[in-house]
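TA notes, week 10

Several of you asked for a full example with nothing omitted. So below is the full record: structure tokens for the whole chain, then the designed sequence directly under it. When grading your own attempts, check the secondary structure regions first.
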């Protein structure tokens, strides 16, 4: 029986370029004469077990004789070497061949190569793409340490100076023998500055910065040993595309099982004694009481704690719980949490999925007391957390609601951060435990905490993020948070159609569709986009990601460099061609009107969730911007009828402002009692939307009122259960 995927909740809004997931993909291109040289260091003076691994792609790897991959040998009788001999794995110890593998690597395709030397068991084992290739037992040779440099891209022994020609990526050396599970689990990801179950990495060359730098290519060591990598001759960086990938997963999270946790020493960026903002994505296994973030000294009355109290989010300042969410958060779904403490007003505020949940003032009697203890993630005074966490943001400042919704699904790093944001530290967890702003602020795995490994473990949720800088995502897209079940009921059939209201008067010359879906069997799905006139085009027709991946996190683009190919990719990074052309179906027509998205699950046994979808027309950079590049300022302030209406459980309220002003958008019941404040801040002139989630409310008629300067307007909406 196929397993049912836990669904994921997501809210995405219009944001500027940012980095929350590793979607770039650079490798190193080797041409004669060219190689990398890494001077010897204590970390590279091997005298026992080792494991070496890398991704290889060469146009003539199976026919060109010997090609050196890694070599730490020039002193006779010492060191080791990894090479290819006519496409088969060759491994040497002390300058002598130990074995020659059986399988031949394919020409012009990426293949993962790993060799494990176990000095205790006296075995050498090779793996190709996570599958056993060759085992040599009773190995009498032992790796003896030397002070030779480590060379990447040639073999100095057999024959002398044998050159590798092609692409290499994710080169790693471990000072211990890896298990088959570790090789299979880790091969689809970058590993940098890791600990815990990943201890033993002494060299890690990813060929790209951990943050999306203007020039991403980086022939550097990210193991934490800070080894020097020197380029000799013709070695250059090469972008291997932003389409479907066979070798890298762009979006990891951290898995907590109630025993393991993360920690980092106290620092100015996490030790708050006044205003601060805490944010993260959370996916609880069950309804539980467990700590998400905690900075306090045991049971002492100091610091701060963000935790789950059953199905509610709770926020402690010092010892008291100052705030608890009004809305419950679901288990086995993603929820974005943002907790803010304002020391000036002594106010605590909580946002869930980018919308205001609750606020309390005065929340505390005195300011937070700084704690010298470490920051803990996943454990603390209120008990351990069980589930997944991702994209943790810590900031000694007050974030506005607009800043939270702008950045929560796009993340930040040293190269991409709003100039108006307070100082911050962010942990994206995409194979690295460093802060995306400062590599000196590193987390540490403790106990059984680990990365999520969605390519290895079945039905693992990926956090709700998508990045495509060159396609102006998400700032150039009109986006809609949905949270529709696929299918609507049971495990076979149609999802309830979702709709997106486009008000722009423009003629379509090109368009893109952003789509984020989790489903345990994507090969069961047919996804169609419907024009306001009623005709439709199929964008996804029962394709499938490789092996266990069930996440459609992609932008469909007619101009993408790759098409979806059955059972080929472990991820789509981040654009592919649609099944049928979008521009061919809708080019030359008006974009204005109600667009609809249809998803049909044609086979039983699996379920999933649509998180978000959106459209970009004519390569627009920013929503609410006219085609001539001037701001589209409405002539008058207007409150529109919510859509859809009636609704269950959420709806969108659209309003237009003719000038910048203070805005309050409030929901009331029919007795005039305030139910929720959706917006309460200064807003710029233009077109705005607010999402109202009524999942915690009963059926009935409700009122929503917009106050914008002197403008006041009230409308009705209907919740149907």
């Amino acid at each position: 029986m196929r397993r049912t995927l836990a669904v994921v909740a997501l809210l995405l809004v219009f944001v500027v370029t940012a980095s929350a997931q590793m979607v770039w993909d650079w490798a190193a291109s080797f041409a004669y004469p060219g190689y990398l040289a890494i001077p010897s260091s204590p970390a590279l003076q091997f005298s026992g077990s080792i494991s070496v691994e890398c991704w290889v792609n060469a146009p003539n790897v199976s026919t060109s004789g010997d090609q050196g991959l890694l070599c730490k040998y020039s002193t006779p009788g010492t060191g080791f070497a990894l090479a290819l001999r006519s496409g088969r794995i060759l491994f040497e110890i002390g300058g002598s061949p130990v074995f020659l593998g059986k399988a031949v690597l394919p020409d012009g395709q990426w293949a993962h190569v790993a060799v494990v030397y176990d000095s205790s068991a006296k075995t050498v084992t090779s793996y190709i793409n996570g599958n056993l290739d060759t085992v040599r037992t009773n190995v009498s040779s032992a790796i003896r340490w030397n002070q030779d440099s480590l060379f990447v891209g040639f073999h100095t022994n057999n024959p002398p100076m044998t050159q590798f020609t092609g692409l290499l990526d994710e080169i790693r050396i471990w000072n211990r023998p890896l298990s088959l599970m570790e090789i299979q689990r880790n091969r689809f990801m970058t590993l940098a500055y890791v600990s815990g179950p990943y201890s033993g990495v002494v060299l890690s060359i990813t060929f790209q910065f951990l943050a999306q730098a203007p020039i991403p290519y980086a022939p550097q060591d990210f193991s934490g040993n800070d080894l020097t990598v020197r380029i000799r001759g013709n070695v250059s960086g090469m972008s291997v595309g932003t389409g479907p990938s066979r070798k890298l997963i762009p979006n990891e999270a951290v898995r907590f099982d109630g025993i393991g946790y993360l920690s980092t020493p106290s620092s100015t960026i996490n030790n708050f004694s006044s205003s601060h903002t805490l944010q993260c994505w959370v996916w609880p296994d069950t309804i539980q009481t467990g700590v998400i973030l905690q900075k306090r000294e045991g049971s002492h009355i100091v610091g701060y704690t963000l935790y789950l109290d059953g199905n509610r989010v709770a926020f402690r300042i010092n010892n008291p719980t100052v705030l608890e969410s009004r809305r419950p958060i679901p288990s086995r779904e993603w929820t974005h949490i943002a907790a803010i403490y304002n020391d000036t007003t002594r106010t605590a505020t909580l946002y869930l999925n980018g919308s205001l949940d609750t606020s309390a003032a005065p929340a505390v009697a005195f300011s937070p007391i700084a704690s010298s203890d470490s920051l803990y993630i996943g454990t603390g005074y209120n008990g351990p957390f069980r589930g997944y966490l991702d994209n943790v943001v810590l900031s000694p400042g007050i974030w506005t609601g607009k800043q939270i919704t702008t950045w929560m699904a796009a993340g930040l790093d040293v190269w991409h951060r709003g100039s108006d944001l307070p100082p911050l530290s962010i942990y994206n967890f995409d194979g690295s435990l460093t802060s995306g702003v400062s590599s000196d602020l590193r987390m540490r795995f403790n106990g059984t905490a680990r990365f999520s490994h969605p390519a290895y473990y079945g039905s693992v949720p990926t956090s709700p993020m998508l990045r495509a800088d060159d396609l102006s995502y998400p700032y150039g897209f009109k986006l809609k948070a949905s949270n529709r079940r696929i299918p609507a009921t049971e495990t076979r059939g149609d999802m309830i159609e979702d709709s997106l209201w486009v008000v722009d008067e423009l003629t379509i010359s090109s368009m893109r569709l952003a789509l984020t879906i989790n489903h345990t069997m994507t090969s069961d799905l047919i996804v169609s986009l419907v024009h306001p006139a009623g005709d439709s085009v199929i964008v996804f027709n029962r394709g499938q990601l490789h092996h266990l991946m069930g996440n459609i996190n992609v932008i469909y683009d007619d101009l993408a460099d790759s098409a979806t190919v059955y059972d080929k990719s472990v991820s789509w990074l981040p654009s592919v061609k649609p099944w049928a052309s979008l521009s061919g179906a809708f080019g030359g027509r008006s974009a204005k009107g109600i667009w609809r998205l249809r998803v049909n699950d044609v086979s039983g046994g699996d379920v999933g969730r649509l998180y978000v979808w959106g459209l970009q027309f004519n390569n627009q950079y920013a929503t609410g911007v006219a085609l001539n590049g001037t701001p589209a300022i409405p002539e008058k302030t207007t409150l529109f009828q919510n859509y859809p209406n009636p609704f269950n459980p959420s709806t969108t309220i659209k309003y237009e402002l003719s000038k910048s002003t203070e805005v309050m958008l409030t929901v009331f019941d029919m007795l005039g009692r305030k139910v929720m404040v959706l917006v309460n801040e200064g807003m710029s002139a233009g077109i705005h939307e607010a999402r109202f989630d009524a999942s915690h409310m009963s059926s009935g008629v409700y009122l929503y009122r917009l106050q914008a300067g002197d403008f006041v307007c009230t409308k009705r909406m209907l919740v149907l259960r």
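Residues 1-21, 623-632 have pLDDT under 50 and may be disordered. Use that as a sanity check on your answer.
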